[in-house]
Amino acid sequence: MSNLTDLTIAGARDALRAGETTAVALTEAHLDAVAASGALNAFVHHTPEIARAQAEAADARIARGDAPDMCGIPIGVKDLFCTKGVASQAGSAILDGFKPEYESTITDQLFRDGAVMLGKLNMDEFAMGSSNETSTYGDVVNPWRAGNSDAALTPGGSSGGSAAAVAARLCLGALGTDTGGSIRQPAAFTGITGIKPTYGRCSRWGVVAFASSLDQAGPMTRSVRDAAIFLRAMSGHDPKDSTSADLAVPDFEAMLTGDIKGQTIGIPREYRMEGMPEEIETLWTEGTEMLRDAGAEIRDISLPHTKYALPAYYVIAPAEASSNLARYDGVRFGHRAALDQGDGITEMYEKTRAEGFGPEVQRRVMVGTYVLSAGFYDAYYNRARRVRTLIKKDFEDAFAAGVDAILTPATPSSAFELGANFTPIQMYLNDVFTVTVNLAGLPGVAVPAGLDRRGLPMGLQLIGKPWDEGGLLNVASVIEARAGFVARPDKWW
Length: 493
Ligand code: GLN
Fold this sequence. Notes:
Elements: H1 9-17, H2 23-35, E1 43-46, H3 48-64, E2 74-78, H4 105-112, E3 116-121, H5 160-167, E4 173-178, H6 184-190, E5 193-196, E6 216-221, H7 224-234, E7 264-268, H8 278-293, E8 297-301, H9 309-324, H10 345-356, H11 359-371, H12 377-400, E9 405-409, H13 424-428, H14 435-440, E10 444-451, E11 457-464, H15 469-483
Parallel strand pairs: 2-3, 2-4, 7-8, 7-9
Antiparallel strand pairs: 1-3, 4-6, 5-6, 5-10, 9-11, 10-11
The chain binds glutamine.
C-alpha cells in the first residue's frame, strides 16, 4: 500500500484486518514522518523502541484474528499523560527528568488494545494556554500557512502538538485534554476533529491535573469516524478515578448513521459575538443550513449566562490549578533548584517553583491563590461557582425543551501568528465558545467545516447532552459529509 500516513484510523484498521498492510509497516512510515518533522516541534519525546515492540505484538494479534479497533494504530500522546518509564513533563521545566512509575488509565487501555505509541507531544505548560507558546519545549508550529505567506502560525493550545501531529500526518490520531477548549480550539486551527467527552466519560487517573473539575481527555483525529473509534477505546469506568462514571460505553461508531431527521438543533444567540469575523458568522450560517437540509429542525435558543462563562472559568480554573500545582515543590518530582549555603526548606520551595514554572503558570497560581484567600473567597470563588451552576442550568433548560444538540462556532478566529504578543486577556478570549462546555460538564466536538480567505481551516462546534457523544458525533458526521472538507496543509517542513 502507498501513503500509509494518509490513512484514517478506520481505513488502517480495515487494511490491517484485510492483510493489506502490517502494523510494523504503518509504524515505520509514521516514525519516518515524525523523524522528518522537527520544524513543527510537535513530538518532544520519541519512543521508537516502544512503538516497534508494540507494532510487532499488534501484528501477532491481528494474525490471530482477535484484534480490537485500535490494534496496530500509531498514535501520539500529549505530554500531560503519565506513561510508564517515558518522560512525562506536562510541558513544564518543573517536571524535568520525570519518568512515572505508572501508566495512566487511558494509555493503559489503549496499549491493552494494541495501540502503538510513537512518542509524547508538545503542549502548553500544564495545559495553560491557547497558542502552545507557554511550553518549556518551545512553540509548536501549525503545519498550515496562510496564502503565500511563510509566517509561522500557532496550532492553538494547549493540545497544540497533538493537533499539529495529526494534521501533518505524523500519527493517525492523538490524545489531547480539554479543560476550557484545549482539544476543540487546536482542532479548529488545524482542520481536524476533536471531541471533549462528557465529564466522567474517560478516566483522569494518571493525567497530570490542571483543574480537576473541568479536565477531560479526548481524541484528536482526521475524521469523525476515527474520533468515534478512538473515544470508545479511551472510555469507561475506572475505580481509581472517583469522578469517572460507571456507565456502559456504547459503540459510538455504530451510531454514525448520518440520519438526523427530526432532531432539534439549537442556535444560541449569545454566541453571536461583537467583532466576530464575518467569515466565522458565514460558516456558522452554512453549518446551520447543512443541518436543516439534512432534516433537522433549527431553533433559536438563549443561553443567557454565557457572557459570565469566561470570567467564571478564569476564577475556577486557576483556583483548582493553584491547589493541584502545590505538589511541585522540589521534593517529590522533577526539578529542584540549586541551593545556597544557609537556605532552608522555604528557600528550596521558593527557588524551585520560581525556576520551574513559566510566567503563565505563575500567573495562574497567583490568581488562584488570591481568589481562594480568606478575604476574597466569597467574592470570587463562590460567586464563580454560582455562575457555573447557572450556566449548567441554561443548557439543561435547552435540552429539557427538546434541543438535541447546539451548534456554535468553535473559535472566534482562525489560527493567528506565533509571537502575536497578545495580552493574557486577549489570549483568554480564544476560549469564549468552549469554556461553557467544560463548566457544564457536557460533551463538545469541533469539526472542520471550511477555509477562510487566507486558506486556513475554520471549525464548528457541536455541544451535546450528557453521555450523548454518539448522537453528537452523528450530527458532526453530517457536517463533515456536507462540508466535504478535504483540504490539507502543503508539506513545507
Ligand atoms: N486556553 C484555556 C486555558 O488556558 C484552556 C486550556 C485547556 O483547555 N487546557 O486555560
